[in-house]
Amino acid sequence: METRVHKASRRQPGASGRLHRMETGEWVWESEEDDDDEDDAARDRPMNTLERADSSDSDDDRAAFTIGSAGAPDTRQAPLINLVLRMRNARHELNDIRFEFAAGKDSADGIATELVGAGLLDARDADVTARQLQRLVDDFLFPGAGGPAPRSLTFRLNSAPPEPEDEQSLVGFAQISIVD
C-alpha cells in the first residue's frame, strides 16, 4: 500500500500538480503553485475525502473523491473545467471522482495517469478514459456548428466485470461529465 501511495505522489507529465495521501488517509491535491510558494503553508487546499451517501431505496453505495488544483483561478490562466468521473469500484460501489482540468496546462493522459497512480482507476481503463476526457474537453472548448456540446459522455470500460453489463447503472461503463 505504501508503495502505491509513493507512486501516486510522483508528478506525472501533463498533470498540474500531484496527488498524495496524508497520514490520516485523506487524499490531497498539491498544485505546482504550492511547490513554488512553500512559504504560504496556511493556504487552503481541497481535501480528497471519501463521503458515504445514504441510499435508503438502493443498494448503491456512493463515494465521492475530489481532485483539484488549490487556490482561486487566475483570470489570465487557461479556463478550468470542473469534471466528475462516475464509475463503479471493485466492490460495485458507485464512485464520483471530482477534479479540475486546466485547459492548456493539464493533459487527459496526465489526469488518467494520476487517477491510476492514486488507485482510483484501473490501468486497463486509462487510455479509454483519457480519450473520452479529451473528447469532452475539446467539444466543450471548441463546440461545433451542430448545436450545444455534450456535457456528459458514457463509455465502456476495458476492466468490465464478468457479469452482464448495464450502461444505465454503469456496470462495465463509466461516465464523465462537466459540472458547474
Describe this protein's structure.
With 180 residues, this protein is an alpha+beta fold. It has one domain (2-36, 43-179): Phosphatidylinositol 3-kinase Catalytic Subunit, Chain A, domain 1 (Ubiquitin-like (UB roll), Roll). 22% of the residues lie in helices and 28% in strands. A six-stranded mixed beta sheet has the order 4-5-7-6-9-8, with helices on one face. It has a three-stranded antiparallel beta sheet with strand order 1-2-3. Helix 1 runs antiparallel to helix 3. Mean pLDDT is 73; it is low at 1-9, 37-66 and 68-75. It catalyses: L-threonyl-[protein] + ATP = O-phospho-L-threonyl-[protein] + ADP + H(+); L-seryl-[protein] + ATP = O-phospho-L-seryl-[protein] + ADP + H(+).
Low-confidence segments, given as residue ranges, are 1-9, 37-66, 68-75
Query: DSSP strand (E) fraction?
Result: 25-35%
Give the biggest sheet: 6 strands, mixed
Using the CA coordinates, give the radius of gyration: 17 Å
CATH C-level class is Alpha Beta
The average pLDDT is 73
> Which architecture would the CATH scheme give at its second level?
Roll
Primary descriptors:
six-stranded mixed β-sheet, alpha+beta, Ubiquitin-like (UB roll), globular, 180 residues, disordered N terminus, three-stranded antiparallel β-sheet
What's this entry about, in short?
It catalyses: L-threonyl-[protein] + ATP = O-phospho-L-threonyl-[protein] + ADP + H(+); L-seryl-[protein] + ATP = O-phospho-L-seryl-[protein] + ADP + H(+). The chain is of the alpha+beta class and 180 residues long.
